[in-house]
Protein backbone atom coordinates (compact mmCIF):
# COMPACT_ATOMS: atom_id res chain seq x y z
CA UNK A 1 0.00 0.00 0.00
CA UNK A 2 1.25 3.48 -0.83
CA UNK A 3 1.69 5.86 2.11
CA UNK A 4 -0.80 8.10 0.27
CA UNK A 5 -3.58 5.54 0.61
CA UNK A 6 -5.36 5.46 3.99
CA UNK A 7 -5.94 1.92 5.20
CA UNK A 8 -9.39 0.52 4.43
CA UNK A 9 -10.44 3.16 1.88
CA UNK A 10 -9.53 1.50 -1.41
CA UNK A 11 -10.14 -2.12 -0.53
CA UNK A 12 -13.59 -1.91 1.01
CA UNK A 13 -16.75 -3.18 -0.72
CA UNK A 14 -19.30 -0.68 -2.11
CA UNK A 15 -22.27 0.06 0.12
CA UNK A 16 -25.23 -2.27 -0.53
CA UNK A 17 -27.52 -0.99 -3.25
CA UNK A 18 -25.12 1.76 -4.37
CA UNK A 19 -25.55 2.55 -8.07
CA UNK A 20 -23.57 4.80 -10.37
CA UNK A 21 -25.55 7.64 -11.95
CA UNK A 22 -24.88 7.28 -15.66
CA UNK A 23 -26.92 10.19 -17.01
CA UNK A 24 -29.71 12.67 -16.54
CA UNK A 25 -33.19 11.42 -17.38
CA UNK A 26 -35.80 13.64 -19.00
CA UNK A 27 -38.42 14.50 -16.40
CA UNK A 28 -40.46 17.11 -18.24
CA UNK A 29 -40.70 19.34 -21.30
CA UNK A 30 -42.17 22.73 -22.13
CA UNK A 31 -42.25 25.20 -24.99
CA UNK A 32 -43.56 28.58 -25.98
CA UNK A 33 -44.02 30.45 -29.26
CA UNK A 34 -45.35 34.01 -29.68
CA UNK A 35 -48.96 34.55 -30.74
CA UNK A 36 -48.11 36.67 -33.78
CA UNK A 37 -47.85 34.54 -36.93
CA UNK A 38 -46.43 35.63 -40.26
CA UNK A 39 -47.43 33.31 -43.08
CA UNK A 40 -45.59 33.06 -46.37
CA UNK A 41 -48.33 35.17 -47.94
CA UNK A 42 -47.40 37.99 -45.55
CA UNK A 43 -43.80 37.89 -46.78
CA UNK A 44 -45.01 38.18 -50.38
CA UNK A 45 -45.90 41.79 -49.51
CA UNK A 46 -42.36 42.48 -48.23
CA UNK A 47 -39.98 40.74 -50.64
CA UNK A 48 -40.08 39.12 -54.06
CA UNK A 49 -41.13 35.62 -53.08
CA UNK A 50 -44.15 33.33 -52.99
CA UNK A 51 -45.67 30.67 -50.78
CA UNK A 52 -44.89 27.99 -53.37
CA UNK A 53 -41.27 29.12 -53.74
CA UNK A 54 -40.67 29.07 -49.97
CA UNK A 55 -42.39 25.73 -49.39
CA UNK A 56 -40.57 23.99 -52.23
CA UNK A 57 -37.15 25.10 -51.00
CA UNK A 58 -37.58 24.98 -47.25
CA UNK A 59 -40.84 23.31 -46.21
CA UNK A 60 -41.77 26.42 -44.23
CA UNK A 61 -45.31 27.80 -44.31
CA UNK A 62 -45.33 30.20 -41.35
CA UNK A 63 -43.28 31.53 -38.46
CA UNK A 64 -44.05 33.07 -35.04
CA UNK A 65 -42.68 36.55 -34.37
CA UNK A 66 -41.82 37.80 -30.89
CA UNK A 67 -42.67 41.48 -31.31
CA UNK A 68 -42.18 43.12 -27.93
CA UNK A 69 -41.45 39.85 -26.09
CA UNK A 70 -37.86 39.31 -25.05
CA UNK A 71 -35.88 36.10 -25.36
CA UNK A 72 -35.86 35.83 -21.55
CA UNK A 73 -39.64 36.20 -21.34
CA UNK A 74 -40.14 33.40 -23.86
CA UNK A 75 -37.61 31.27 -21.99
CA UNK A 76 -39.45 31.80 -18.69
CA UNK A 77 -42.76 30.63 -20.18
CA UNK A 78 -41.17 27.49 -21.62
CA UNK A 79 -39.34 26.85 -18.34
CA UNK A 80 -42.48 27.08 -16.23
CA UNK A 81 -44.27 24.60 -18.48
CA UNK A 82 -41.35 22.18 -18.30
CA UNK A 83 -41.21 22.39 -14.50
CA UNK A 84 -44.95 21.82 -14.27
CA UNK A 85 -44.70 18.84 -16.62
CA UNK A 86 -41.83 17.43 -14.54
CA UNK A 87 -43.56 18.02 -11.22
CA UNK A 88 -40.46 19.78 -9.92
CA UNK A 89 -40.37 23.02 -7.95
CA UNK A 90 -38.01 25.74 -9.18
CA UNK A 91 -36.27 25.75 -5.79
CA UNK A 92 -35.12 22.18 -6.48
CA UNK A 93 -33.06 23.23 -9.49
CA UNK A 94 -29.28 23.11 -9.16
CA UNK A 95 -28.45 24.51 -12.57
CA UNK A 96 -30.06 26.52 -15.38
CA UNK A 97 -28.42 26.43 -18.81
CA UNK A 98 -29.71 28.53 -21.70
CA UNK A 99 -28.66 28.19 -25.32
CA UNK A 100 -29.25 31.49 -27.10
CA UNK A 101 -27.55 33.76 -29.59
CA UNK A 102 -30.10 36.56 -29.69
CA UNK A 103 -30.63 37.75 -26.12
CA UNK A 104 -31.39 41.46 -25.83
CA UNK A 105 -29.25 41.60 -22.70
CA UNK A 106 -25.46 41.23 -22.83
CA UNK A 107 -25.57 40.83 -19.06
CA UNK A 108 -27.20 39.68 -16.85
CA UNK A 109 -27.31 36.54 -18.95
CA UNK A 110 -30.63 35.01 -19.94
CA UNK A 111 -30.30 32.15 -17.45
CA UNK A 112 -30.04 34.62 -14.56
CA UNK A 113 -33.10 36.49 -15.82
CA UNK A 114 -34.99 33.19 -15.93
CA UNK A 115 -33.77 32.29 -12.43
CA UNK A 116 -35.08 35.56 -11.03
CA UNK A 117 -38.52 35.17 -12.63
CA UNK A 118 -39.11 31.55 -11.60
CA UNK A 119 -37.51 31.83 -8.14
CA UNK A 120 -34.81 29.20 -8.66
CA UNK A 121 -32.55 30.81 -6.06
CA UNK A 122 -30.38 27.69 -5.55
CA UNK A 123 -29.43 27.30 -9.22
CA UNK A 124 -26.21 28.30 -10.92
CA UNK A 125 -26.94 30.06 -14.22
CA UNK A 126 -25.03 30.01 -17.49
CA UNK A 127 -25.68 30.93 -21.12
CA UNK A 128 -24.12 29.18 -24.10
CA UNK A 129 -23.79 30.85 -27.50
CA UNK A 130 -23.70 28.15 -30.18
CA UNK A 131 -26.42 29.41 -32.54
CA UNK A 132 -28.67 26.62 -33.82
CA UNK A 133 -26.58 24.01 -31.97
CA UNK A 134 -27.17 25.86 -28.70
CA UNK A 135 -29.60 23.36 -27.23
CA UNK A 136 -27.33 20.41 -28.05
CA UNK A 137 -24.52 22.26 -26.28
CA UNK A 138 -26.50 22.87 -23.08
CA UNK A 139 -27.84 19.31 -23.20
CA UNK A 140 -24.32 17.90 -23.19
CA UNK A 141 -23.23 20.26 -20.41
CA UNK A 142 -26.28 19.35 -18.33
CA UNK A 143 -25.51 15.65 -18.69
CA UNK A 144 -21.88 16.24 -17.70
CA UNK A 145 -22.91 18.17 -14.58
CA UNK A 146 -25.23 15.35 -13.55
CA UNK A 147 -22.70 12.61 -14.25
CA UNK A 148 -20.07 14.46 -12.22
CA UNK A 149 -22.44 14.60 -9.25
CA UNK A 150 -22.43 18.41 -9.20
CA UNK A 151 -26.12 18.69 -10.09
CA UNK A 152 -29.25 16.64 -9.56
CA UNK A 153 -31.93 18.72 -11.27
CA UNK A 154 -31.00 20.75 -14.36
CA UNK A 155 -33.19 23.06 -16.44
CA UNK A 156 -32.13 23.25 -20.09
CA UNK A 157 -33.54 25.96 -22.35
CA UNK A 158 -33.13 26.87 -26.01
CA UNK A 159 -34.54 30.32 -26.81
CA UNK A 160 -34.05 32.69 -29.71
CA UNK A 161 -35.63 35.62 -31.54
CA UNK A 162 -33.78 35.67 -34.85
CA UNK A 163 -36.55 37.80 -36.34
CA UNK A 164 -34.58 40.72 -34.86
CA UNK A 165 -31.37 39.70 -36.60
CA UNK A 166 -32.60 39.24 -40.18
CA UNK A 167 -33.01 41.80 -42.92
CA UNK A 168 -36.68 41.58 -43.87
CA UNK A 169 -35.80 42.78 -47.34
CA UNK A 170 -33.42 39.85 -47.94
CA UNK A 171 -35.53 36.99 -49.25
CA UNK A 172 -32.64 34.56 -48.85
CA UNK A 173 -32.75 34.77 -45.04
CA UNK A 174 -35.99 36.43 -43.91
CA UNK A 175 -38.13 33.50 -45.10
CA UNK A 176 -36.31 31.04 -42.84
CA UNK A 177 -36.48 32.17 -39.25
CA UNK A 178 -39.03 32.33 -36.46
CA UNK A 179 -38.97 32.90 -32.69
CA UNK A 180 -39.66 30.70 -29.69
CA UNK A 181 -38.35 28.80 -26.70
CA UNK A 182 -38.23 25.20 -25.54
CA UNK A 183 -37.15 23.64 -22.25
CA UNK A 184 -36.36 20.28 -20.69
CA UNK A 185 -35.81 19.28 -17.07
CA UNK A 186 -33.15 16.62 -16.53
CA UNK A 187 -32.98 14.75 -13.24
CA UNK A 188 -30.28 12.43 -11.95
CA UNK A 189 -31.34 8.85 -12.61
CA UNK A 190 -29.81 6.04 -10.57
CA UNK A 191 -30.86 3.42 -13.08
CA UNK A 192 -28.08 2.94 -15.60
CA UNK A 193 -29.01 4.08 -19.12
CA UNK A 194 -26.97 4.49 -22.23
CA UNK A 195 -26.36 8.08 -23.27
CA UNK A 196 -23.83 9.73 -25.52
CA UNK A 197 -23.27 13.26 -26.80
CA UNK A 198 -20.82 14.75 -29.29
CA UNK A 199 -20.17 18.36 -30.29
CA UNK A 200 -17.79 19.41 -33.09
CA UNK A 201 -16.70 22.77 -34.47
CA UNK A 202 -15.00 24.13 -37.58
CA UNK A 203 -14.17 27.80 -37.11
CA UNK A 204 -12.42 27.96 -40.48
CA UNK A 205 -15.82 27.67 -42.18
CA UNK A 206 -17.49 30.13 -39.80
CA UNK A 207 -17.73 32.76 -42.55
CA UNK A 208 -20.60 30.72 -44.03
CA UNK A 209 -23.00 32.04 -41.38
CA UNK A 210 -22.28 35.24 -39.47
CA UNK A 211 -23.95 38.03 -37.52
CA UNK A 212 -21.87 40.85 -36.07
CA UNK A 213 -23.21 43.36 -33.56
CA UNK A 214 -25.30 46.03 -35.23
CA UNK A 215 -25.63 44.09 -38.48
CA UNK A 216 -27.99 41.56 -40.00
CA UNK A 217 -27.48 37.83 -40.27
CA UNK A 218 -25.47 36.83 -43.37
CA UNK A 219 -25.57 33.30 -44.75
CA UNK A 220 -24.10 31.31 -47.62
CA UNK A 221 -27.12 29.03 -47.96
CA UNK A 222 -25.50 26.55 -50.32
CA UNK A 223 -22.43 26.11 -48.09
CA UNK A 224 -24.55 25.60 -44.96
CA UNK A 225 -26.81 23.14 -46.79
CA UNK A 226 -23.86 21.03 -47.96
CA UNK A 227 -22.23 21.20 -44.53
CA UNK A 228 -25.37 19.92 -42.81
CA UNK A 229 -25.92 17.08 -45.26
CA UNK A 230 -22.36 15.89 -44.71
CA UNK A 231 -21.77 16.42 -41.01
CA UNK A 232 -25.13 15.54 -39.46
CA UNK A 233 -25.27 11.90 -40.63
CA UNK A 234 -21.60 11.58 -39.71
CA UNK A 235 -22.04 12.74 -36.10
CA UNK A 236 -25.22 10.69 -35.66
CA UNK A 237 -23.32 7.56 -36.68
CA UNK A 238 -20.55 8.59 -34.28
CA UNK A 239 -22.81 8.75 -31.21
CA UNK A 240 -24.65 5.56 -32.16
CA UNK A 241 -21.36 3.70 -32.56
CA UNK A 242 -20.31 4.77 -29.07
CA UNK A 243 -23.73 3.88 -27.65
CA UNK A 244 -23.57 0.54 -29.51
CA UNK A 245 -27.03 1.06 -30.99
CA UNK A 246 -27.73 0.52 -34.71
CA UNK A 247 -29.55 3.13 -36.77
CA UNK A 248 -32.40 0.67 -37.33
CA UNK A 249 -33.24 0.60 -33.61
CA UNK A 250 -33.77 4.35 -33.27
CA UNK A 251 -37.43 5.27 -32.73
CA UNK A 252 -37.11 8.96 -33.58
CA UNK A 253 -34.54 11.41 -34.95
CA UNK A 254 -35.26 14.87 -33.53
CA UNK A 255 -33.29 17.17 -35.83
CA UNK A 256 -32.82 20.92 -35.82
CA UNK A 257 -35.64 22.29 -37.96
CA UNK A 258 -33.69 24.32 -40.50
CA UNK A 259 -34.89 22.99 -43.84
CA UNK A 260 -37.08 20.05 -44.82
CA UNK A 261 -34.74 19.15 -47.65
CA UNK A 262 -31.87 18.80 -45.18
CA UNK A 263 -33.97 16.52 -42.98
CA UNK A 264 -34.93 14.40 -46.01
CA UNK A 265 -31.29 14.26 -47.08
CA UNK A 266 -30.11 13.10 -43.66
CA UNK A 267 -32.79 10.40 -43.60
CA UNK A 268 -31.66 9.19 -47.01
CA UNK A 269 -27.99 9.07 -46.04
CA UNK A 270 -28.78 7.16 -42.86
CA UNK A 271 -31.07 4.84 -44.84
CA UNK A 272 -33.79 5.48 -42.26
CA UNK A 273 -37.50 5.98 -43.06
CA UNK A 274 -38.70 9.60 -43.16
CA UNK A 275 -41.47 8.64 -40.74
CA UNK A 276 -38.82 8.48 -38.00
CA UNK A 277 -37.98 12.16 -38.55
CA UNK A 278 -40.80 14.20 -37.01
CA UNK A 279 -40.89 17.83 -38.02
CA UNK A 280 -42.77 21.04 -37.29
CA UNK A 281 -40.85 23.39 -39.56
CA UNK A 282 -43.98 24.09 -41.61
CA UNK A 283 -45.57 25.90 -38.66
CA UNK A 284 -42.54 27.50 -36.98
CA UNK A 285 -39.67 27.86 -39.43
CA UNK A 286 -36.13 27.80 -38.07
CA UNK A 287 -36.29 28.81 -34.40
CA UNK A 288 -32.54 28.36 -33.92
CA UNK A 289 -31.65 26.93 -30.47
CA UNK A 290 -35.34 26.52 -29.64
CA UNK A 291 -36.19 24.16 -32.50
CA UNK A 292 -35.13 20.84 -30.93
CA UNK A 293 -36.75 21.38 -27.49
CA UNK A 294 -39.95 22.74 -29.08
CA UNK A 295 -40.21 19.61 -31.21
CA UNK A 296 -39.37 17.40 -28.23
CA UNK A 297 -42.14 19.04 -26.22
CA UNK A 298 -44.65 18.43 -29.00
CA UNK A 299 -43.43 14.84 -29.28
CA UNK A 300 -43.86 14.38 -25.54
CA UNK A 301 -47.26 16.05 -25.11
CA UNK A 302 -48.79 14.35 -28.14
CA UNK A 303 -48.20 10.97 -26.51
CA UNK A 304 -45.73 9.83 -29.13
CA UNK A 305 -42.90 9.78 -26.58
CA UNK A 306 -42.96 6.44 -24.77
CA UNK A 307 -40.77 5.16 -21.97
CA UNK A 308 -37.79 3.22 -23.27
CA UNK A 309 -37.79 4.80 -26.72
CA UNK A 310 -34.41 5.34 -28.30
CA UNK A 311 -34.01 8.89 -29.59
CA UNK A 312 -31.33 10.85 -31.40
CA UNK A 313 -31.05 14.64 -31.22
CA UNK A 314 -28.93 16.51 -33.75
CA UNK A 315 -28.26 20.17 -34.41
CA UNK A 316 -26.05 22.26 -36.68
CA UNK A 317 -25.40 25.89 -37.36
CA UNK A 318 -23.14 28.92 -37.12
CA UNK A 319 -19.63 28.48 -35.88
CA UNK A 320 -19.70 26.18 -37.70
CA UNK A 321 -20.87 23.89 -34.90
CA UNK A 322 -22.70 20.58 -35.09
CA UNK A 323 -23.52 17.75 -32.74
CA UNK A 324 -25.73 14.87 -31.78
CA UNK A 325 -26.96 13.06 -28.68
CA UNK A 326 -28.35 9.59 -28.08
CA UNK A 327 -30.79 9.13 -25.23
CA UNK A 328 -33.37 6.70 -23.92
CA UNK A 329 -36.67 8.30 -22.96
Write up this protein:
It is built from ten helices and 13 strands. It is an alpha/beta fold. The model is unreliable at 1-21 (pLDDT under 50).
Topology at a glance:
Blueprint: E1 23-32, E2 37-39, H1 40-43, H2 51-58, E3 62-64, H3 71-86, E4 95-99, H4 110-118, E5 124-128, H5 134-148, E6 153-161, H6 171-174, E7 179-189, E8 196-201, E9 209-210, E10 218-219, H7 221-243, E11 252-255, H8 260-270, H9 281-284, H10 291-301, E12 310-317, E13 321-328
Parallel strand pairs: 4-5, 4-6, 11-12
Antiparallel strand pairs: 1-7, 2-3, 6-7, 8-13, 9-10, 12-13
Summarize the structure.
The chain is an alpha/beta fold. It has helices at residues 40-43, 51-58, 71-86, 110-118, 134-148, 171-174, 221-243, 260-270, 281-284, 291-301; strands at 23-32, 37-39, 62-64, 95-99, 124-128, 153-161, 179-189, 196-201, 209-210, 218-219, 252-255, 310-317, 321-328.
List keywords for this structure.
globular; 32% helix; 329 residues; four-stranded mixed sheet; alpha/beta; five-stranded mixed sheet
